[in-house]
Structures are given as C-alpha cells and as structure tokens.
Amino acid sequence: MQTAVYSNGVWQESCSREADLGLHRNEGGVEVLVAKGDVPFHWYDHHSRLRGSCGYYGISLEKLLPGQKILEQIKLMLSREGCERGQIHVLVTSGDSEDLKTPSSSPRLSLNIWPFFQGNPPPLSVMPVNERRIVPRHKLTFHYGNVGPNLKKAKEAGFDSFLYSDEKDGLLEGPYENLFFVNDAGELITPAFGALPGVTRRILLNLAQKSGLRVLEQPVRLWHLRRMKEAFFSSTTKGAAAISKVGEYEHFEVGERTLTAQLKKLFFEYQERYYSERGA
C-alpha cells in the first residue's frame, strides 16, 4: 500500500497522528475512488464533493492543495504501486492541535492507495434500520461511526448489510452505497432525499435515461416494496450490486436477465471507455 500525507506545504510518507484534532473528534472529509493504471475514475467529481465536505468543517481544500496537485500525487503513487487497478482513499482533517480543542497547524490531507480487485458478490440481503446520516450531502468521517454496530446487528439477524431509513423520507441508502429499485412498470426509482449524491449514482441515472428507461427520484417506503421487482446498491467499488431481500421482503429478482444486470454492464462499459479515452 502507498501512503502519503500533506501538511504545512510538504508531502511525507507518514506522520504522527496522536495530536490530529480531526481523528480525536472524528471530524474529516473522505472520498474513495478507483483507478486503472494511473487514471483515477472521475477524480474531479470526487474532488468537488470533498471540497464541500471540508467546507462543512471550515477547511479550505483549495488553500491546502488544489485538485490538480492532489491528482498529480495520486498518479505518481498509482505508478509506484504498479497495479493494474487501484483503490484510492482520501482523508482531510483539520490537523494537529496542542490542546485537542483548537487546530494549531495547517489541515492535513492523507492518501492511501492499494490494489483493487473487482469482485462479483452474490445478491445481498439487507436490514432496514431506523437511522439516517445527519448531513447526507457530504461524505464525513463521523457518518461511519455507526456502520460497525449496525452491520453487527444486521449479521446477527441473518442479513448481509443494512439500509438507513426514517419515517419522513423512507428507505434512504446503504452504509457506503446509494439505493435503487425497479418497479413492476420497469421504471428505475431512487430515493430523492436523505442520501449521498453519489458519483456512480449520477452515472447510472444518466445511462438509464440514455437507454430509454423512465427514471424517478422519489421516496420509497417499506410498503412500496410490494410493487418493486428489483433492488440494488450502487457505489464506486461495486458498480451495481443486486439485492435479493429487504427486511421481510424477499421477492426481488436477480440474475443476468434483470435490469440491474443490464445497468451494471452499461456502467462497466462506460467505465472502461472513460479509462481508454484517458490512456489507461
């Protein structure tokens, strides 16, 4: 794994994190993306969202390091890693603090890069939990504090993962993924509110519309699932991952002839074109 940390105008391979205020308070902006060769997939879309996440904490990402400079470091690290495909983890925190209350240095940006292997997991079963992320439009580190306990509860109940949900906006998203359904009319539906504006989500919506599918962004509640015939997660690392069961509803279709499988194929074809057009 390649690691690099930028702070106070200098890149380092590692640094002490004992006084990092962001880690003590679980305050930071995070992004995860994939790459082929030295070409990250949709870097500037992830960078734009990272800017917003940093802004939530009053951190100016552009003053810390412009997006092009971060991209140059990512490409250098991908070349050094030498793998065909890589996964990139970007974390920005407010930096060190002498009293663990107020930042006493410049913000800190950390990059971790390791080989990525695109798997083909079996369909998932997911358990709704009555909980939601507080600031869903941003990808913030504290949002993931409850992922471990919720996954533990889901697995103890016989599920593979879980869904955030609430009474106001219905079913929202997975721990790291956006959520989609296909209804009996063959329309693609994804929650309109309370979920991260995912990069893969947006690409899938565009691909679906271009292929002639009707796309609806609207709330989906548990009792609506009777009219849904497919369900899937979307994320940078998964593409489109089929869901076979949501809570007590286990009628969802899976397999190569589903719309989920077609959209997954369209997404990976798009991704390979993206890489090819950029020399990867």
Describe the protein in words.
By secondary structure, the chain is of the alpha+beta class. The chain has 2 domains: 2-115, D-amino Acid Aminotransferase, Chain A, domain 1 (2-Layer Sandwich), CATH 3.30.470.10; 124-274, D-amino Acid Aminotransferase, subunit A, domain 2 (D-amino Acid Aminotransferase, Chain A, domain 2). 28% of the residues lie in helices and 29% in strands. The protein is built from 7 helices and 14 strands. The protein has helices spanning 21-25, 43-56, 61-64, 67-81, 147-156, 199-210, 259-277, and strands at residues 2-7, 10-12, 28-36, 39-40, 85-93, 108-115, 124-130, 161-166, 170-173, 178-183, 188-190, 215-217, 228-235, 239-246. The strands form 2 sheets. It has an 8-stranded mixed β-sheet. A hairpin with a 3-residue loop joins strand 13 and strand 14. Helix 6 (199-210) crosses helix 7. 38% of the residues are buried. The model has no long low-confidence stretch (mean pLDDT 94).
